């Protein structure tokens, strides 16, 4: 092309790009109300957003993958943890989070009850925005170096490709149709929604957002034998099944994983998991003696 043709090509390409960009911008703004459910933006949600900004939460946390990447992504935190847990956590993070155990410190924001309720309302709205799959996975920052948690990819590689494949969730590896329920339960422990391993360690004495599940079989037997137990389980398997389906059926007196007679553990697994999946989880957890 000569110089005149080159200039004409550049001008036409620029004009086309501008038209496409403007068209995409207009289309995005057309879809925003539906994607973000603007009808659900209440005064509490707006106040929660103001609390989020006033406390510079984004300096450590992320929403929709945007933020400091120092602390967990909170895009789906309301759905993953629930209001009772978040309320207790925000009142006193030191009961759940400390620098020695997690190698980082969650400061106490010293929020009022109204601010906490508003912030949770904001998180609930954020979690229901149609973000079209972004971020592609929750950003987890705890447990990576804690014994009993998932192995790193390097460790998996050293252990051999077969072992690594066994630890992947069923949807990410070939399924033979004749797999061990315990193996399926272990995979589900790391892939269910919410992810069990995000809150529970299987290492003795390592409590995260929830208690360690090491020795859960023995604890189940002790609980069922105690006079305080008011549930309906009559076996270890039944106790674990009850804990998954109705986590508030039995609460350990004085523990930090419940408040007001309600467990912080999500009570949605009875609906989000099939009966077969729950049995797989029970089979795996029953082996943690």
Provide a brief overview of the structure.
The chain is mainly α and 289 residues long. The protein has helices spanning 3-36, 43-54, 77-81, 83-91, 99-102, 113-127, 153-159, 161-166, 181-189, 216-225, 236-245, 269-272, 275-285, and strands at 62-63, 66-67, 258-259, 262-263.
Give a verbal description of the structure.
There is one protein chain. The protein is 47% helix and 3% strand. It contains 13 helices and four strands. The protein folds into three domains: 1-36; 39-127, Cytochrome Bc1 Complex, Chain D, domain 2; 153-285, Cytochrome Bc1 Complex, Chain D, domain 2 (Orthogonal Bundle). The N and C termini lie far apart (77 Å). It has 289 residues and is mostly helical. A two-stranded antiparallel ribbon has the order 1-2.
Helix/strand-derived category reads mainly alpha
Q: In the CATH classification, which architecture of the largest domain applies?
A: Orthogonal Bundle
CATH homologous superfamily designation of the largest domain: Cytochrome c-like domain
How much of the polypeptide forms β-strand, as a percent range?
Answer: under 5%
Biggest β-sheet: strands ordered side by side in the sheet: 1-2
SSE arrangement, N to C: HHEEHHHHHHHHHEEHH
The main pleated sheet reads as: 2 strands, antiparallel
Please provide the count of β strands: 4
Radius of gyration: 24 Å
Termini separation (Å)? 77 Å
> Counting H and I runs of at least 4 residues, what is the number of helices?
13
CATH fold label of the largest domain: Cytochrome Bc1 Complex, Chain D, domain 2
